[in-house]
Specification:
Structural class: alpha/beta
Number of strands: 25
Distance between the termini: 58 Å
Radius of gyration: 28 Å
Helix content: 25-40%
Largest sheet: 9 strands, mixed
Length: about 600
């Protein structure tokens, strides 16, 4: 289906918005009136600009507070409408969005509303224009799509149809199944937006918190499928009011918008891109720094062995169990200090994973590759982290580990892997996102990797709230935490970490401490509260307190975890899961964040 985007969804002047739309790959545009009024371009120039960019003008909007009004107000409204029709003719737009009235002088009279809308449609038809009537969720008398349709049906004019808006429908809890009762040819337009589920005044919810489909909590796909089944054949168009999007760069937001529509089409059963090759685990985490010596010391203390050196690049391979860490000294300077710059995920079909990533607009990472290097495709996540699709040490696919020359015997590696407290695998990775790319990152990991998103959480930080959302594979083999810190420009706002799974965290912590690497100190107050909340056996509580291990549990199991000090932008977490615990210790996040601030900056 054709794809369109309302200019109100992007930041910047109208000319920049149109360029961003076309560059991203949209077919058409909704011109929001305020964007035109604030533009130095005349309607004729906007029309030519859209034609040059290959964009159709699919809708002009909004026209407000028209129907069910007294005769004198109607006369003024018709005059206003004629002026809009003249502008639309200059633009080359032939569809006008009319919102249900919120005017105090409007009355609750469907027959009057239908008669006046019929009159408006008559006037519009004389200009070759059609009217799409939309129910605002906060409309004074018409606030549901089925009510708007009844009025359109009663008006019975060929130039009058309805506009279905997913936010206005789903925010009120209306059932989209009723769309089946609307003839497809009378659905003139379909506007789409998602939103997080919130308890908020619907107008404020709409004006500030809409997001692209797949980033919120609405079932937009079901609504789209219902409209298509009813016979709708117009464009899929996004209309998103969002404070963050309106401050972010228009180009990247437009790409995110189009990706959301591509994934929406798939969810609604309207397209079939290559299916997501859901990863089964982490192949590696790559840390980059000009000087990796501090990281080597931490990895040694954690029990890792330096097992390989890349044959053509300044990259070291460190291993323990199935956990692999790459240390890369060939950094470009775009990151400050040791940073997590790439991750590899184990996928059953790397080629299919790469094909899907490209289909949903993930930028391919150009690589300098020696002819003997294993094929390894990568794409860039919104925050710049490179994601590699791997199939490690499998007989049916070349393994990237073959690009490394051994520097440690396998016997030494086995000895470390079999010791008490050994690291088994990478449990999860946490990445701090740029403030304006949090929702985009969630959609990227869901759409490209096929991960499932948990609910968004707000975690208490000493200087505000950290917004956090986890995405994970169904079996928990890949878990990624996406965070946005409260102070985007602060040094702490850029922290990342790698969580390492062990079956015996007590032995693991004792070993780390014996090797002279300190762990993040946890205040005694935490353990007094833990005793009050969980009533742990006294000896166990004393051990956790002595070693600085945090504790959480749910109805499925327990979670024990602790943290190293931060090196540059990176720290490590040791975790032990028992039973079916699937969380990340969010209960302890405030304590960890406060301890990190204190450790890095002092009292």
């Amino acid at each position: 289906m054709r794809k369109s985007l309302a200019t109100v969804s992007l930041s910047g002047p109208l000319s920049e918005k149109l360029t961003a739309l076309a560059t991203a790959g949209f077919d058409g545009v909704e011109i929001f009136e305020n964007d035109l009024l604030g533009s130095p371009l005349s309607p004729e120039e906007v029309r030519l600009r859209c034609a040059d960019l290959g964009l159709s003008i699919d809708l002009y909007q909004p026209f407000r507070d028209f129907e069910a009004v007294p005769a004198d107000t109607l006369a003024r409204n018709l005059r206003r409408a004629e002026r809009k029709f003249a502008v639309m003719e200059r633009l080359g737009a032939d569809l006008l969005l009319v919102c249900s009235s919120v005017a105090p002088e409007s009355v609750d009279d469907d027959a009057l509303a239908a008669g006046q809308l019929r009159l408006l449609a008559d006037r519009a038809a004389a200009h070759g224009i059609r009217i799409a009537y939309e129910a605002l969720a906060w409309g004074r008398h018409v606030s549901t799509y089925d009510h708007a349709w009844r009025i359109v049906e009663q008006a019975d004019h060929p130039a009058l149809g309805t506009c279905l808006d997913s936010f206005h429908i789903l925010s009120r809890g209306s059932d989209p199944k009723g769309i089946a009762d609307i003839p497809g040819e009378k659905i003139f337009f379909l506007q789409l937006a998602d939103a997080p589920l919130m308890t908020l005044d619907v107008l404020q919810w709409s004006r500030h918190h809409r997001c692209f489909p797949g980033q919120g909590g609405f079932d937009v796909a079901a609504l789209v499928a219902a409209a298509v089944r009813a016979g709708y054949r117009g464009p899929l168009s996004l209309e998103v009011f969002n404070d963050v999007f309106r401050q972010a760069g228009a180009a990247s937001t437009a790409v995110d918008a189009l990706r959301s529509l591509l994934l929406l089409e798939e969810s609604a059963g309207l397209s079939a891109p290559p299916a997501a090759a859901v990863p089964s685990g982490f192949a590696f985490a790559e840390l980059s720094a000009a000087d990796t010596e501090p990281l080597r010391g931490v990895l040694e203390a954690l029990g890792f062995a330096h097992t390989g050196r890349h044959t053509g690049k300044p990259v070291e391979l460190w291993e323990q169990g199935e956990a692999r860490i790459l240390l890369n000294t060939g950094v470009s300077g775009r990151r400050q200090g040791p940073a997590l710059t790439a991750l590899g995920v184990e996928t059953p079909d790397p080629d299919r994973a790469a094909q899907r990533a490209e289909k949903v607009l993930a930028p391919v990472v150009p690589r300098r590759r020696d002819p003997l290097d294993a094929p390894l495709n990568a794409v860039a996540a919104p925050d710049g982290t490179e994601v590699f699709f791997c199939r490690t040490e499998q007989p049916d696919h070349p393994s990237w580990t073959g690009d490394f020359a051994d520097v440690t015997s396998r016997a030494r590696l086995r000895e470390r892997t079999e010791s008490p407290g050994a690291v088994r695998r990478i449990d999860h990775i946490a990445l701090t996102q740029p403030w304006h790319q949090f929702d985009e990152a969630v959609l990227f990991h869901r759409g490209v990797l096929g991960l499932e998103a948990d609910d968004s959480l707000d975690l208490a930080d000493p200087y505000g709230l950290v917004r956090s959302r986890a995405v994970a594979s169904p079996d928990g083999g890949v878990r990624i935490i996406l965070n946005v810190a409260p102070a985007p420009d602060a040094e702490d706002a850029r922290l990342q970490h790698v969580a390492l799974a062990t079956d015996d965290i007590i032995s693991a912590v004792r070993r780390v401490r014996q090797r002279g690497v300190g762990l993040l100190p946890i205040p005694a107050n935490y353990y007094e509260d833990l005793d009050a909340r969980c009533e742990l056996e006294p000896a166990r509580l004393a051990t956790l307190s002595e070693l600085g291990i945090l504790y959480d549990r749910d109805e499925r199991g327990e979670f024990l975890h602790c943290y190293t000090a931060t090196v540059g932008r990176v720290f490590f977490e040791l975790v032990q899961r028992t039973g079916g615990y699937r969380g990340y210790g969010a209960q302890n996040a405030a304590v960890r964040l406060a301890a990190q601030h204190l450790h890095r900056h002092g009292a």
